[in-house]
Automatic annotation (TrEMBL):
<feature type="transmembrane region" description="Helical">
    <location>
        <begin position="294"/>
        <end position="325"/>
    </location>
</feature>
<keyword id="KW-1133">Transmembrane helix</keyword>
<feature type="transmembrane region" description="Helical">
    <location>
        <begin position="192"/>
        <end position="218"/>
    </location>
</feature>
<feature type="transmembrane region" description="Helical">
    <location>
        <begin position="61"/>
        <end position="87"/>
    </location>
</feature>
<feature type="transmembrane region" description="Helical">
    <location>
        <begin position="7"/>
        <end position="25"/>
    </location>
</feature>
<feature type="transmembrane region" description="Helical">
    <location>
        <begin position="258"/>
        <end position="282"/>
    </location>
</feature>
<feature type="transmembrane region" description="Helical">
    <location>
        <begin position="31"/>
        <end position="49"/>
    </location>
</feature>
<feature type="transmembrane region" description="Helical">
    <location>
        <begin position="224"/>
        <end position="246"/>
    </location>
</feature>
<dbReference type="GO" id="GO:0016020">
    <property type="term" value="C:membrane"/>
</dbReference>
<comment type="similarity">
    <text>Belongs to the autoinducer-2 exporter (AI-2E) (TC 2.A.86) family.</text>
</comment>
<protein>
    <submittedName>
        <fullName>Putative PurR-regulated permease PerM</fullName>
    </submittedName>
</protein>
<keyword id="KW-0472">Membrane</keyword>
<feature type="transmembrane region" description="Helical">
    <location>
        <begin position="139"/>
        <end position="161"/>
    </location>
</feature>
<dbReference type="Pfam" id="PF01594">
    <property type="entry name" value="AI-2E_transport"/>
</dbReference>
<keyword id="KW-0812">Transmembrane</keyword>
<dbReference type="InterPro" id="IPR002549">
    <property type="entry name" value="AI-2E-like"/>
</dbReference>
Amino acid sequence: MPDRKNRYHRFVLLGLILLLSIIIFKELHPYLGGFFGAFTLFILLRGLMVRLVEKHNWRKGVSASVIVLGTTIFILIPLTGFGFLAVDTISGISIDPAQIIKSMREFSDIVEERIGITLFTPENLSFVPRAGSSIMQSLVSGLSSMVINGVIAIFLLYFMLVSYQSLENITHEILPFSEKNKRILREETKSIIQANAIGIPVVAITQGILAYIGYLSFGVSNPLVYAVLVACTTIIPVVGTSLVWVPIGISALTQGDIVRGVLLLCYGLLIIGGSDTILRFVLQKRLANIHPLITFFGVIMGLAMFGFWGIIFGPLLISLLLLFFNMYRHDFIPGSTAQPRVTTKEDGKGGILFRKRAAK
């Protein structure tokens, strides 16, 4: 009887925890980016905090304050400044919907005359006048959310760093896994976050530089403006930087500069677009061997759910789902060849950590 009563109390308590968690999650959903940002920064900076406290004997409060100040100066302020630069750059572009529609119709007439296919009609061009204002509203809203969540992230990061030992102990205590799986979960989470947090800025900066060099060489007006736009669009799934280099190439074609337009499109496809594929492949192989489909669907889901920080936590959530699935197969299905990992990491001896389980 006491065991049944204790079990009842346990389920009631878990139910209350779940209910309150759902309510809090619902109300704080607009600010989840700040929570995830703080968690990302904590994962990246925890090692520095440990060194300052345990090796150099700094006080926790002083160590956390120095790290937070450095993070604000060298990460969040440049990131926010880049966001303002992007919005200012886009808002400074003179967009004449009538001229755009005229150019698209002229290009459509050329295509229709040569191959007999109608690309644009008055009906499917009606979106053009509304597109500019919609894009600007989205950018301004996204930038405001980014600033607010950045402040929340810094605030939370300080307390997470100060309480890093108790935070890790609590997390380790409540996870319902074996010690081995807890270690794997910690390693996988850190690996995936580092891969995205380091890889995305590297890809964005590299593509921006390549775009600037190319547009400067081809005589595109305002090459720096379009290079900034290329860097900003690297995080957009599927289309990405093609949102910038395709209209630039088509614009040259509609103006009758066929050779230059073809060269711009080829440069965008092969150099700007190709560098994205190569860089992501190399970085993911070195930092975390994340399957491209995980990154693809993770970014789509993450941006919709969490905003900017979703480019990191979208792939992480999908990876964790696959990791838990693999753990279940590995631990509870006899004869399963599943390995309790999603990324490939080598141990200190050069072997792969997720070797096949030995036959019993």
